[in-house]
Amino acid sequence: MPRAHGSHHSVVQRETQSNFGVVLTLWDQLHRTPRLNVPQAQITIGVPAYSEADEQTVAELLALPAAPHRGWARPDGLVPERA
Q: Hey, which of 13, 34, 46, 79 would disulfide with 28, CB 3.0 to 4.6 Å?
């Protein structure tokens, strides 16, 4: 199941809200959050709102918890989805 957990880190929000368990998938089963049909080769890891490289410096990442939450969209307003 560790491979299935990879979709939890996807830029697609509905994939991020799934596959929380790495080894023990009991919680996903209880909350009906497993998503096992995601093509692993097509997953892009990250958070869309913070996709720019200049926003991922050590200083920016350390300041991130104190910054206002941006939501899920990319800086251009696009919300990634998978067909």
A: 34
CA distance 82 to 12: 7
Alpha-carbon Rg for the chain, nearest whole angstrom, is 14
Domain that holds residue 28: 2-66
Any domain includes 45? yes
Model pLDDT, residue 30? 92
Q: Is the residue at 49 inside a domain?
A: yes
Contact 38, 5 (CB under 8 A): no
Query: pLDDT (tens digit, 9 = 90+) per residue, 54-74?
Result: 888 999 999 999 999 888 888
The pTM assigned to this predicted structure is 0.68
Residue 82 within a domain: no
Q: d(Cα 4, Cα 71) in Å, to the nearest integer? A: 25
